[in-house]
């Protein structure tokens, strides 16, 4: 029975490459055509594959519907939270999780610093989109035309001397973030606060959320905070793996 299930499941990634006829399916599985046909018929009955008029098979609408439903029901905050807590326990600084919704980037989770100096950020509150590290990651993942459209409609308040001054500067920063795969806010929103961030990706590789570690200068310098970037990225990768279903939950260590 387990061999039959294994063979049936092996058909799905083959058809994800494109329609295939019975001979190709049998060849890929290393079985007789009659065995491949029985498997395909069973998958067809459940809507997981569809037989075209040219007698080739492709993925069925039922499978696509189930995948979409599963993605819609995934809660990135629920998956990420234990990782954020562990990271906070390791480094002691404030940890944030943010997502891009419509025209805003919002914090959806926060683990407070163990130090007396606290940040005023709140869950559900929009971030300063032109300077926040999490916002840069989320917007950098947009297609180029969408990035430009967003950048050109934003205001660019000069929170500090290090704030992004205009759309051209913001687009250059987003291009840099997109290439390097991480982002920072080193005094761009508040002179005394620095932040490093990494992206959380779904099964398709797109950025679905961003996480960050932030700390004031009185607790740790910007240079010292930057040394935590590898750990932040490993944590984000662990969340990505669990969210996308590539890897089981596991603890990230320094």
TrEMBL record:
* Organism of origin: Streptomyces violaceorubidus
SUPFAM superfamilies hit by this protein: GAF domain-like (SSF55781), Winged helix' DNA-binding domain (SSF46785)
Q: Which residues form the IclR-ED domain?
A: 62-245
What protein does this entry describe?
A: IclR family transcriptional regulator
Instruction: Give the keywords, sorted.
Output: DNA-binding, Transcription, Transcription regulation
Pfam families (UniProt xref): HTH_IclR (PF09339), IclR_C (PF01614)
Residue span, HTH iclR-type domain: 2-61
Taxonomic lineage per UniProt?
Answer: Bacteria, Bacillati, Actinomycetota, Actinomycetes, Kitasatosporales
Keyword Transcription regulation attached = yes
KW DNA-binding (keyword) present: yes
């Amino acid at each position: 029975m387990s061999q039959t299930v294994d063979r049936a499941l092996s058909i799905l990634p083959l058809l994800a490459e494109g329609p295939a006829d019975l001979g190709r399916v049998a060849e890929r599985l290393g079985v007789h055509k009659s065995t491949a046909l029985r498997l395909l018929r069973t998958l067809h009955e459940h809507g997981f594959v569809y037989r075209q008029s040219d007698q080739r098979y492709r993925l069925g609408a039922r499978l696509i519907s189930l995948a979409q439903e599963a993605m819609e029901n995934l809660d990135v905050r629920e998956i990420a939270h234990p990782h954020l807590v562990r990271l906070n326990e390791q480094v002691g600084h404030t940890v944030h999780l943010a997502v891009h919704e419509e025209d805003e980037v919002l914090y959806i989770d926060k683990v407070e610093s163990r130090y007396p100096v606290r940040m005023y950020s709140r869950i559900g509150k929009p971030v300063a989109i032109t300077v926040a590290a999490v916002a840069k990651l989320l917007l950098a993942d947009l297609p180029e035309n969408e990035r430009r459209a967003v950048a050109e409609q934003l205001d660019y308040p000069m929170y500090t001397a290090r704030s992004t001054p205009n759309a051209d500067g913001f687009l250059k920063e987003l291009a840099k973030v997109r290439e390097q795969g991480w982002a920072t806010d080193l005094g761009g929103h508040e002179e005394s606060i620095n932040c490093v961030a990494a992206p959380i990706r779904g099964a398709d590789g797109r950025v679905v959320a961003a996480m960050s570690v932030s700390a004031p200068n009185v607790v740790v310098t910007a240079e010292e905070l930057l040394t935590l970037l590898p750990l932040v990225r490993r944590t984000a990768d662990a969340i990505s793996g669990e969210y996308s279903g590539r890897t089981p939950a596991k603890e990230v260590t320094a």
